[in-house]
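Handout, section 4.2: multi-component inputs.
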Amino acid sequence: MGTSAKRRMTGFAGAFPEEKASFPVAERSARMPLWTRNGLGWIVPVILIAGWELLARAGLMDVSLFSGPSKIATELWKIAFNGELLAHLEATSVRVLSGFAIGVSAATLLGALTGYSGTARRLLDPLLQSLRSIPSMAWVPLFLLWLGIGESSKIFLIALGAFFPVYLNLMNGVRNVDRKLVEAGLANGFRGFALAKAVILPASLPAYLVGLRQGLSLGWMFVVAAEIMGASRGLGYLLVDGQTTGRPAIMMSSVILFALCGKASDGVLARLSERWLYWQDVYKT
Amino acid sequence: MLRLEKITKRFANGTLALEGIDLEIAPQTIVSIVGASGSGKSTLLRVISGLETPSMGQLSWNGQAIQRAQRAISFIFQEPRLMPWLKVTHNVRLGLGPSPDREDEKLVTEAIAKVGLERFAQALPRELSGGMAQRVAIARALVARPSLVLLDEPFSALDAFNRLKLQNHLLKIWATDRTTLLVVTHDAEEALVFSDRVIVLTGQPGRISEDFFIPLPRPRRRTDPEFQSWKQTILGALDLSLLEESEMLGEKSYASAP
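Output:
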């Protein structure tokens, strides 16, 4: 009894000798250490800043137009110390994040809908595409008229900016899901919401994440427009304030802070993408 | 019992892929459908699976009409079609449908063991070789213990060595499970290694032109004179003179099929 019963239980695993995957899969630990990978990106900016400082000190640059890095650092330190910087950063970040959240929610809903359903696409996509071609600045006076000069007009302008890249990428991501994978889902009894959850959404995740990153960077662009149109706090306000009071160091501080914030928030999304898309079979450099 | 009555399939573009197919397939047998590309054999399989709806005619499995994909019938495609974001074990679990029971978990383990991939249960599809990936697809098709498995040229994308290995493996699984297998292939030898019955389809439109019952005992040896003579019979029935023409027509109609 022993052998036959055992064979039945274990199937025919014995039919296959020990096997290894056909090609080695890159291990995280085998790649470049984290500090080396991220450190490389600092080399060029550090050289540029050092050169800039040298030119400013040597008097080869008009410091009334281009403040030297040390001057900017001093100004930044000053506003950081009196708490002003934190207030500006907070105001801008809250605007970007709330606008981004609203834009992404609407875009996710509509992008998934128009990607999945041909009827919804034919109904809604032409309208949305024509709205997309309106220049962002054209909305500013209208939003001020409709929503007033307070926070809501700013947040909705940012939401609008974040909406389109997310919407477009998700819609195309859903539309371009491999028919063969969808059929494999259908053949296993998945349809409707179950099919969307098991096959279509995971398959369109790479496109969605690209859309999120583009949307977030547009969010940072639109917040400048929103804050220039009238704000008493925020990095955009800092820029206008520096301009009206004739302090180029403050203006440049604002621009540098925008760059740092944009890069940091994009970095978070980039890391999340890497974590969520670990399954992709891509060539890693 | 699989029963097809006057199955006709016309695609939206007007191509008539199948016309008046009448077929009965007894349970626990292996039946192959052979034909040149464009003869409608894949379409026939997709109609039986419920992935395509017939334009006319009736089909039923064990007395129940087939309208859409169902758990009792599973499908093995030409390519593995694994979800690249799911580990092997989760890919196999997909075969249980959208709402598996908790007790079904042990079916997943069993199915993975059946194809000898226990050590790769936690691997991602990109870490598997072509043959291993197709074995995962076989496990996914068998996990729900279907009574009918449809195979659409399941080994044609594999190299000759892996093809032989998987053919033997599938036959061994069949010897214990006795699941009804319906295999579409363009390889007369593959059809003979497997089948109790070989059905020849000629296009276009696809019609059954021959229906051979193969009395050879199992396991079958490809070198046996009788095996070879059957192979000649089937190749003769495939009407090779028409192959080239139907191949061209076939590629065209397949490409434009929805």
